[in-house]
Amino acid sequence: MTTAQPLKFEAPDQGEETARADLYGVLAALFYAPPSQELLSAIAAAPDEGDGVLRHAWRELAAACAGMTPDRTRDEYESLFIGVGKPELILYGSYYLSGFMMEKPLAALRTELATLGLQRGDKVTESEDHIASLCEVMRYLIASEEMSQASVASQKQFFGTHLQPWVIDMCSAIEAHPQAIFYRPVARLAKAFFEVEMQAFDMF
């Protein structure tokens, strides 16, 4: 699996595809591990213009980042997504698609990743159906210089198969959890973005 690239925040007049890839990268970083102070500061200081649900969600996340510390986000991340025994919240697609971890949806995902020439890195501990890994694959597909991979059709197929059936449920579960303080606006941004992606792919 490719690893998340260094996050870069640019003015809103950047190319739409670059903006999409960057936002997938941001979500991959936030869901993979508790954010560092550098990431919190970068999001809090990122340029912000425009209106709409997605922009409102970004503003909410930026405000949350400005008021957070790495220690507090680490405590919340571990409480919500790691815990002792079964986590409070699950970030793996197989769980939402089949009710269990490490099931057939993961096997199908691994087969498709192999056809794309992708595999999990030796240092990556999470399985490929973790939301962070899937966001990183989408970032890769958007930014890839291989036309067959960067095509909208390829992105739509991967998103529709491995993300669309369950990500809104995951985001809603995070939003509703009483202990989700920092990760509530993260989930709202993710939900708003995924819904925009769904609408765009439906028009393709």
Number of domains: 1
Summarize the main sheet: none
Report low-confidence residues grouped into runs of 5 or more. 2-14
Q: How many individual helices?
A: 11
Q: Could you name the CATH class?
A: Mainly Alpha
| DSSP strand count | 0
Question: Mean pLDDT, as a whole number?
Answer: 88
First-to-last CA distance: 27 Å
User: What class would the helix/strand composition place it in?
Assistant: mainly alpha
CATH architecture: Orthogonal Bundle
Helix-strand string: HHHHHHHHHHH
Give the overall form.
Answer: globular
What Rg is obtained from the alpha carbons, in whole angstroms?
16 Å
Task: Tell me the helix content.
Answer: 55-70%
For this structure, the CATH topology is TorD-like
Assigned CATH superfamily: TorD-like
Which percent range describes the beta-strand content?
Answer: under 5%
